[in-house]
Amino acid sequence: RGKMAARLSGGENRLVSLPLSRIRVIMKSSPEVSSINQDALFLTAKATELFVQYLATYSYKHGRGKEKNALTYSDLSHTAEECETFQFLADILPKKILASKYLKMLEKEKRDGEVGEGDEDEEEDEAVEDIR
User: Fold this and answer.
1) Structural domain boundaries of the chain?
2) Where is the composition biased (Acidic residues) (predicted)?
């Protein structure tokens, strides 16, 4: 085993905070993965830990965290929506909205969709008349 793997067995002197057994399970859930090198496991855990730390720090500094001295879900979702680096997380960290607002949005989209469809038919009819 490599030097990194030897350090992992130290127990109290852990270099990563995330549970390696969970990360191994996630990695093995991919059909392309047949075995996992101990160093690859450690590096994946450490990279994940550093990414989460960076996301949290960035969200805290650019959100309302400083005002409240706390990191909130809305800080994270705002970062995912506004920062290009984190936009791939927008589906995972959507902005929270009330169910009543969501239902109103769906209703509005449905109405707009019906009106829009009717308008398109009229435009097509006009285009056909112009051709004749």
Assistant:
1) 20-111
2) 115-132
Chain position carrying tokens 């409240």: 68
CB atoms inside a 10 Å sphere around CB 13: 8
**Cα separation of 77 and 71, whole Å?**
11
Q: What's residue 115's pLDDT?
A: 56
**Cα(64)–Cα(55) distance, rounded to whole angstroms?**
14
Report pTM.
Answer: 0.61
Counting every residue, how long is the chain?
Answer: 132
Written as six digits, the tokens of 113 are 């969709």
98: three-class secondary structure by DSSP: coil
20-111: CATH architecture: Orthogonal Bundle (1.10)
Give the Å distances, CA to CA, from 122 to 108, 128, 129, 131, 132. 21, 10, 11, 14, 16
Say yes or no to pLDDT of 28 above 70. Answer: yes
Task: State pLDDT tens for residues 50-77.
Answer: 999 999 999 999 888 777 788 988 899 9
